[in-house]
């Protein structure tokens, strides 16, 4: 039964999809789930420190979302959208292109007088390898002409300035993600200081959130679904700290969880360095490192729902989601969060 996509579907009223974030960041709602007792309670997110203490370790994904969405025109005048996914070499990017059928090898796209693109290789699933020609520093040109790559359910013309600030964690450092690690959007400087004062060890790793975030599960049997690869990095210092004993290993977000579970051996030891992962965590998976998970409320039928079901247990997860809908929690990227202990 748990291999069927329909097992992870649920009815979600449109008005529960959060279109804008709450202000301040930490005034969202937090559902706290105790796996051992099945108890579910609710607190304001800023009261999170009451559940954490000395000896706990919390792990963040410090990736930084880039303004990866470019709108340009072909030399013949047709509008084109390019979503930058991964830099392959300097000036050459893997992109998702729309309309892909009209973007053949050799086609040129003009974004501005400072930025042009040429299709140099046609790939599957609407992807293209693109070479950019630009004036100045690429990241500055991208900042000037790119838009934040919001998920489809947030697409709107207004509030771009708000999204540049709020669709980014306050601790984002390493540019390269095309989607935010959204569980981290709730944290403020004050909240991080409170956790430190309580003796919570804060560790950062990096996973550049990629195309898989936007890719729906289409197979009726989830075992047939294939995840896209994403790059991650764990510094030697971070690995050393992660390999010290901790009361609890609390991952902030599914991306952080996937990176950590990809970089650990059967004994629970974390390896430093760079890696690529296409790990698909679903019910039946045995977690090797993560003991608690902080995450947002996800799309019905998504791989993220399956990961949460693997961690919290299917029945408890579906009961929690049913309660979230009844209690009108806000869903998805700008929505509320749950802490699974």
UniProtKB/TrEMBL annotation:
Pfam families associated with the record: Queuosine_synth
Broad EC category: transferase
A Gene Ontology BP annotation from the UniProt entry: tRNA queuosine(34) biosynthetic process
SUPFAM superfamilies: QueA-like
Pathway(s) this gene product operates in, as recorded in its UniProt entry: tRNA modification; tRNA-queuosine biosynthesis
Catalytic activity annotation: 7-aminomethyl-7-carbaguanosine(34) in tRNA + S-adenosyl-L-methionine = epoxyqueuosine(34) in tRNA + adenine + L-methionine + 2 H(+)
Superkingdom as given in the UniProt entry: Bacteria
Family label: Belongs to the QueA family.
Protein name: S-adenosylmethionine:tRNA ribosyltransferase-isomerase
EC number(s) on file: 2.4.99.17
Gene: queA
Lineage, opening ranks: Bacteria, Pseudomonadati, Chlamydiota, Chlamydiia, Parachlamydiales
Described purpose of this protein according to its UniProt entry: Transfers and isomerizes the ribose moiety from AdoMet to the 7-aminomethyl group of 7-deazaguanine (preQ1-tRNA) to give epoxyqueuosine (oQ-tRNA).
Assembly mode: Monomer.
Localization annotation: Cytoplasm
Entries under PANTHER family matching the protein: S-ADENOSYLMETHIONINE:TRNA RIBOSYLTRANSFERASE-ISOMERASE (PTHR30307)
GO cellular component: cytoplasm
Keywords per UniProt: Cytoplasm, Isomerase, Queuosine biosynthesis, S-adenosyl-L-methionine, Transferase
InterPro entries linked to this entry: QueA, QueA_dom1, QueA_dom2, QueA_sf
Main location: cytoplasm
Native source organism of the sequence: Waddlia chondrophila (strain ATCC VR-1470 / WSU 86-1044)
